[in-house]
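Observation: inputs received (chain + tryptophanyl-5'AMP).
Thought: call the complex predictor directly.
Action: predict_structure
Action Input:
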Amino acid sequence: MKRVFSGVQPSGSLTIGNYLGALRHFTRLQYEADCYFCVVDLHALTVPQDPEELYQNTLNTARLFVACGVDPKQATIFVQSHVPAHTTLSWLMECNTYYGELRRMTQFKDKAAKHDVVTAGLFTYPALMAADILLYQTDEVPVGEDQRQHLELTRDIAMRMNNRFGPLFKVPEPYIAPKTAGGRIMSLQNPAEKMSKSSDDPRSYIALLDPPDVVRKKIRSAVTDSGREIRYDPEEKPALSNLLVIYSLATGESIDSLEERYRNSGYGQFKADLAEAVVELLAPIQERFRELSEPGVIENILAEGADRAERVAAETLARVQAAMGLVPRHAAAVSSSRQETRAPSSIT
Ligand code: TYM
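Observation:
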């Protein structure tokens, strides 16, 4: 069975960008593959976090996985810091990743420009991400377009280490939807920037937990382009094209059909209908989220998920450590881990 891994940072309230670009695919892939969906709390720490907020955001992100339709019986849901193999493998990745490669990462350059203090963790972030993915011998990684470069680096590190130490890792494939299918949802205030949960301007994103009136207000105040025509044209009409993509994905109606339906309407009607479509999309998610807020519910799901994830992660980690020449702690483990340095033949 195919293996799928993806992660989401608990660095704010998840947005419809996260849902349309990633979470929506999790809910489908869980029936086709052995899926691991991770709340990557350690990645969130690469920029300053308020500890209490991080704590709540971590639990809420996991609740939103389930509220959006990820079934904990079908997929493994867990928190990154609960499985220490991620940080251990991350160091081994860092020692096989080049300074020049990390320096070229556009997300690092963007984030570094936004913060006064740039931590070492922000710089080595992609090595931890590679560890997340490679620990699980992942075939496919469903993410938004903004993660493509990190995925390419992950593949390069995997191939490099396989060449150097023998076949240790599967080389994962990105699973990225085209722009019209939600691969890159843009900010409501600036269509040149992606919608982001860590933006300082809440009007730029729709959070999955925004109440209906807030959704209506944000869509009403979304920027539009000159002219009145409702037409998909990312070059000439980037703001409206983004709204058309959101509308189409929220309702399942094609962009062509929406253009036809709004041929004689102005932006006002279009935006009012779009707001109702988004409110309807979010209503069942918000309802399930409330049910999951009972104390202990999400904590139990995460405890079980961490146990399952740890078993898979431990196998890969032991094999990598042995292949790189690290001496196992217990003499008894020496012989068994030495025998396991050869990866199963299914790994390419
Ligand atoms: P993060 O937390 O920023 O976003 C989570 C997922 O949502 C996607 N996404 C979007 N998709 C479309 N339009 C948008 N505006 C938009 N904004 C976000 C992201 O592409 C992502 O799929 N580095 C990752 C987290 C991570 C990870 C991993 C992902 C850590 N380890 C291993 C996959 C595999 C990140 O910051 O995602």
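Thought: report the result.
Final Answer: The first strand starts at residue 3 and ends at 8. The longest helix spans residues 297-324.
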